[in-house]
User: Fold this.
Amino acid sequence: MFKKVKYLLLIFALLLTLLPPAALAASSGTAPYDLQASLIDPDETRPHGSALLTFKIDNLPRSDATKNWYVYIEKKVGADGPWYKANEVSSDEFLDYYQTSTGVFQFEQLWVEDYAWDGRTLVSFRVKAILYDETFSFAGESAWSNTASVGVQGSSWALPELQKAMEYGLIPDILAGKDLTQPITREEFCELALLLYEKTTDKTPAPVSPNPFTDTTNPRILKAFALGITQGTSATTFTPNKLINRQECATMLFRTIKAIAPSADYSIAGVPDFPDQKDIDSWAAESTKYMSKLGIIKGDDKGYFMPKATTTGQEASGYGTATREAALLMSVRTYDAI
Assistant:
């Protein structure tokens, strides 16, 4: 029995010598996971803001005479930018100062680049643990964590046009740092439409006075109302947090274009009805056809416009609503078209 155990130990030792250093480090349960990133607003000590990183490491070791463990953070600016080192901090420091509960760490990654970050540029992070030997020569590393981002957070297919939205200055402050894959509200879309007007005309309108609404004091909503870009849901309410549907998006953008170029040709002659034309409210019929004519808001592959939910099942599934990224793409296409 003793010989058998000794033989197994020899085999195990041989396997360890064959394993690459990276595998040795990864096998000890040091891989970070569940990485999340959130924005911290600028202040006196953070002139460009920063990102709060939260992640988990089940068994982050402390360093000793022969092993030196570090937490290594990389950053990437933009969708296609290169990864580069942002921070490398000893595991002892992480355990002593950044552990909020067992195995859970929070670390503020200060934005220290030599240009101001506007809060919209996509900035991504990833984390791993690195092992050095007693001479501080590389001895292994864990797997990377998942990637977490702040700034423009959208679907991969939308990122090229979202980057254009950032370059054009069409992302309103209300959407800075938000998940753009989520549905957009009336307030958010209203601010987006007003910003499109301001960037296109280089004008700053005055808000309507007195305020007709009892549920908002947002001056940008009141400016858009004064321009005729938006209306309320009643004579006294705007319902800012209500999700906006596709026919409302088309109508608000149509009114925005009219405010920008009131004497342009807005004919929809020859534009055919959509297969679901009956579901489009009469007040949105002209807007939906004109925006489709410009190619700004298109139907699906069968031509359906999907203006709004008409059944409880459609309401539950989000049918006919617009996401924040889709709304920004509409704004970019409108900017390019006018």
Residues 11-27 have pLDDT under 50 and may be disordered. The chain has two domains: 2-150, 159-337. The two ends are 85 Å apart (CA to CA). Residues 159-337 form one domain.
